[in-house]
Amino acid sequence: MMSIPVINVIGFSDSGKTTLLVGLITWFKDHGYKVASVKHHSKYGLEVDTPGKDSWRYAQAGSDLVLIASPDKLVEYRNLEKEVPLADVVSRIADVDLILVEGYKNSENPSLLVIGNDQFEENAQYLHHCFAIAADLPLPDEFLNGIPQYPRSDVEGLALAIQARFLSGS
Hints:
By secondary structure, the chain is α/β, with parallel strands linked by helices. It has one domain (about 5-45, about 80-165): P-loop containing nucleotide triphosphate hydrolases (Rossmann fold). Helices cover about 25% and strands about 20% of the residues. The chain contains five helices and eight strands, in the order βαβαββαβββαβα. The chain is globular and about 55 Å long.
């Protein structure tokens, strides 16, 4: 069985990661791909339920795992003692062609670096797994070091780069 490509979209806050990911998900869906998305929330206290609802009350009572099932959705959340590594998170995903991850800057997965205005120097430490950079400002050649640069709005160009590099066998 072929493994599912996992692409991390990384960058600092307000760099445009979410906007780009929404565009990429839409592009891949429009082209017949099944896509999973993972959002890394690096702060404690994530709330995914509505206070007062039954499932929220189960979690407040101490349920370690809560599932909410409806005719068109299944939501699972569990209380954790420590953060689950990205590899464990994506190992739970099946039946998709591509996994797009927002965050996990230190992952060893191929990554697409999104750079907001005047942020490029701070991002140099994250270039080792980058296959592309999305940035609107002109970046120096010594920073790019052969990594192709796209405008942040070039969803199709970035999607085609992902398709050619990671989905050509599917």
